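Weekly structure sync, notes
Attendees: PL (lead), two postdocs, one rotation student
Agenda item 3: pending single-chain targets
PL asked that the sequence for the first pending target be pasted directly into the notes so everyone works from the same version. It is reproduced below exactly as submitted, 96 residues in total.
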Amino acid sequence: MHVVDTVHKTELDTDYNGLIDFMVKGRQVDLYLPKEKTDSDGYLTWDVEHWTSVDGRRFIRCYSLKGRVLRDSTSHNTYDMKNDFHPEEAEKVCLS
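Predicted structure, written out during the meeting:
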């Protein structure tokens, strides 16, 4: 998948595992979704997901909506990532 590196001002191609490796090494992966997404309870709506690793085994996802960072976040372990981290659904993927 095509990824824009906003720190090094480059573009690269990588896969799902490559993005996980970037997070483990301290980078943040931003997924710009093609449309707004809402959780199953109707509580939270977002259009960008910001993913990073806490310690290589735990990950955190923060959210933005229309350019505003939301106060909510979710935590995930390595096993959760297959269910919750979907860069293939993003219209744009950035490394920061």
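Discussion points:
- The beta strands are 2-5, 10-13, 29-38, 45-53, 58-65, 68-77, 92-95.
- DSSP finds two helices and seven strands in the chain.
Action: rotation student to compare against the earlier draft before next sync.
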